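Forwarding the complex inputs:
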Amino acid sequence: MNLAINEIIAVILLVCSLFFFLASAIGMIRLPDFYSRLHASGNSETLGLMLSCLGLVIYEGPTLLSVKIVIVFLLVFLANPIGTHILGKAALKSGHPVWTNKDKEE
Amino acid sequence: MKTKDMLKDETIVGSPVKHLVVLACVLFAFWLLLSGRFEFKFLFYGVLTAIVSAWICVPLLLLPNVDGTKKYFIFDVNLGKYAMYWLWLLNEVVKANIDVVKATVKSEMVINPRIIRFRIKMDNPMALTTLANSITLTPGTVTLNVTEDGLYEIHALTDGAAEGLLEGGMQKRVADLFGEPFIYEVVEEGEEQ
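Prediction (whole assembly, two chains):
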């Protein structure tokens, strides 16, 4: 089995990105309330997607397809926080209570 | 608003013609990247569509400030500096992400969720948007609300994330990027309701 060096790097990056997606899913289940879960769903995915896009770009090499992958990543990079923000703002406006460490003791 | 009227509008920051040219260039670069063909025919079509779309879209990309006295064009920033800012932000995102993952995956979660507030005076709506977007992108902090007078309400997940944000490094960078004066204060809990 002979793998090119860029394939090896790509696989490593993809596995790292899977780790962050997994951490995001774990955080989604474990965190206590809606606001904290926003962090898990919105943010860890940004890094996961970043690593997988980087892996694909390295696998693909310097072609036009790489540029398009980067554009897809930039779009998510700009749009993901907007979605998170809108959900959070809606929750705040409707008066959803914020879980703090004081609630843990009860 | 028609583009013809826009050319005479005095409230726009910078020159409208320059904004048209910048937008046309950005759109043409995007066309080249997506089409990937460099024969004369395609370049010609590209230039034509870029100019027409820029002519139609420039009025839509002008953002009025809060009191409505000025209009800012969204690409009216130093694009090189803007790119540097996003690279810096990318680095911050990676660092903060690792912290948050560490905090949530441990068997005893090290979190302290709460709402923090700060106030920053910036006139350019793009600056306010960039700051809100950057805060949400950085793991551990999510912008919940931005009021018209520049009060940010932010949900912070961990102590480290909250303190890192309230130090004001990111706010200073955004203010510098848009050439705004840096007027920044932390609003303590209970002071503002």
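Chain A has one domain: 5-105.
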